User: Fold these one by one.
Assistant:
Number 1:
Amino acid sequence: MTEPHTPGLSAHGYIAVVEVAVYTIALVISVINCVRYDFKRQTGWVYLSIFCICRIVASALTIVVEESSDPSTGMITAEMIVSNIALTPLHLAALGLLTTSTRLTLADTMSKVFTKLLRFCRLALSVAIVLGIVGGVELAKDGTSQTGHTLSRVSVILITVAFAILMSLSLFFLRFATLQPHNRMLILGVTVALPFLLVRIIYSICYAFSSSTMSKFSTLTGDWKIYLGMDVIMEFVVLAVLTTTGFLLQNYSRKKGIAQVEQGSPYEMAYVRDQEMVNSDLDGMSK
């Protein structure tokens, strides 16, 4: 994108148009559910909303850049940075859903370990965002900047480590036969989404460790077929799986909760206690 080009949408631009439409619809759904089901409890919906916003902004910037005969470096830099950091809230959404589903399955000692792992993941992902932004700015100034490449690579490594922990925890909890049906459903949904998320991470790794910012893995100038297959479609699938899982969980919890409240069963008491523990943990993390 360093050379002037004829204004007009390329394959990347048309893909961006589709992304704006898809993620706008997904954002409306996520925001409605955030409001309806309480922002703290449904942390998955909160992070999915943030992810949708990032993708809408990145796609809009792609369209603006391609429609401009002389796009500014600032717009190009912003698109690349937002595209890269959008991967982080997708991880956080999966972590939030996993947190909600596993509280009552752990003994006190294991619960502390689990909480520490979650906090480490959130810290790693937060640092990854910062490093990704700084690295992107450095590379925008100088495409050969060693500092920029290093920071971008460390950012991707941190995301990969967080993913490895997320996958390990998901597979670990699937072994619990005592999980409530709604909890197992949620963990299974997260686990199903992980292989697609892994492909998306591999795409970021390939770009971060390429020798040039103009590599075929670039979201703006790379091979659009690779971009579509390893980035766009993978994110669509992860979003669809997590959203569907969230809806199934809410429908199950609402129907089961009404029936159990009328009977005064231990199930509802456990469910309420589960939510209180999640809220308490989230409050502690926010301080």
Number 2:
Amino acid sequence: MTDTRVREGQAWPRRLEWALLAVIVLAAAFLRLYRLDSVPPGLTHDEADTGHFVVSVYRGAPSQVEAPYGYANEPLTMFTGAAFMQLFGPTDLALRLHSAFFGLLLIVFGYLWARAAFGAATGLAMAALTAVSFWCVATSRFALNPQPAPTLFTGAMWALWLGLYGKQPPRARWWAWLLFALFLGASLWAYEVARATTAAVVFFGGLLAFTDRPRLRERGGWFAAAFLLGMALAAPHLLDPAAWQRSTTLATTWRALKAGDPGPMLKTVVEALGTFTFRGDPFITYNIPGLPIFNPLVGALFYGGVGLCLVRWRQPAYAFALLWTATGLLPSMVVGAWNSTLHSMGMQPVVFVLPGLAAVTASRWLGQRAGRWAARLAGVIFVGIVLLTGAYTARDYFHRWAQSPDVRAAYLQNLASITRYLEDVDTSGSVALSSPFPDLPHDPFIVDLRVHRDDLRLSWFDARGAIVLPAEATGLLIAPSGAALDSLFSERLSLELLERVQLRPDDLAPYFDIYRWQPEHALAQLLPASPGPIGAAGQEVVLPVDFGGAAELISFEVLDSRIVADEPLNVITAWRVLDPQVLGPVPADAYGIHAAIFVQLLDASDQVVAQDDRLDAPAWAWQTGEEFVQIHRLTVIDDLPPGTYRLALGLYVPSSGRRMPVLVDGVPVSDTVFLPSVEVVRP
């Protein structure tokens, strides 16, 4: 039988080998755990979305495969992440530790596979390069769901090699075949990239029929049975159409190719190939824009390893390394360099085997021709390359990338600072929190992961358009610079500025303000008690006006009853929440109930000439009895004929378009109320 492992000139002392591996793993652990609570500098919405599902499982809810947003379609991370939350609490740090653990395990499994396939020196070289790679360090610190997939797939390949090339008879290695099936099946439950790399296993089985038929005859039955078992374990997930949701949304290049246009596919293939040494992922949330996977020194070794595998393709290990790399790159070849940091994760860690293989082969060649000193010198040079790569990674990740204002904005550093304040503040009660993203699954999920205080009651809104008035005598109001109070609010409300918390001056959101206020008196400060007459269905109605039992209009103000064309029309409405459940069930593609308020300017024939549909105090956060104020700004076109125009107002559910009925004495009379008319004049 053919032994696929590269024979080394001299066997490594086992203690030295394990000692070197321990040093590598310790260095990798430092790069993956150092300042893990502050780098990355906050949470992205995708990370918070992942955390939402993990926390749900942690709290005992069943995992749903079909996520309404964020493509959290692989459920394994929900359970492995929940296990880490059992150890470290339901926080974003637990999610980052979860990724760091699988990132370290990736190094161990990668070393074991490379050792089995090519020898100890190549295994150690791969482990060292993986440990210090910017790419692998970054992915090991994200609070996302992909990290288990390449780790489990690599574990499956190690087990496959034990089963195929172990010296014991196949029956004695039954446990290796079982591990292969379990790890392979689990990787397919973890992230979509495992589907692409699984194709490498299929191609490899076919290749053995040409390159190693004796081994295939002896162990092919075990190989096939274990592979089918792994696929059977993954079948309940893979047969669910929801599991392919993201794959179908990213297949535009395939559709163009099928339609006879190869241009988009050629472009993405070139981009993907360029990520190795030319131009990497441009997405700053995950990478320094354009930073390739390899620096020039490691890149040269990588291409040497690729060439070596092409020359020795008849040897199964070399052929499989190429197959694994190609299928691991396939998702990025379909979609391009954008987000390739995640899309190419299937080829971790095999792409680091290739430069290691080239370095070991070169060292051995030098040793045979120039003596042992030349081989040792080559080894020292390789160690120097690893150390230099590690130094650049530490600088690039912790300084260049983490301190970038764009990265701090992407990880919502302002909100992260607010959550630290809320976690530590010596107060309780209501907190009115303005946010540029108050709807689900955005900023609220971040706060859920980072603030764990039952004595704080948060109200969510975007103060650039609305403000929620908690049913409290006093409370805190927090407004970041990116969602500061509209001037209509700041000028009319009695607010005591307690502190302006300054962050970094170059941040895109460099501060947040903390106010003390009296929300129970705020409505009287914002709107008049007797705003004027309103009508519905041809009759005058009095405030409050009930909209289907969901909310009631309690006051309003039309700031200018006479406006000039081409100027904004400002309308303020105030509402009291009655029963948000009346708005209906949560749509299948949403995390919570939605609602919107429409304000329309109508001409004499009831044609809409200006309109504003919005709700900056999202309905998912409505609490019965709570009040909120919404600002509407309608843009009036400059050629609008002068005259009197009616103002129509209503409440509706965007997902269905259903308008809530206007109830008078409990009886529906219309779905629209009319505010006082507006006169439009020429400039």
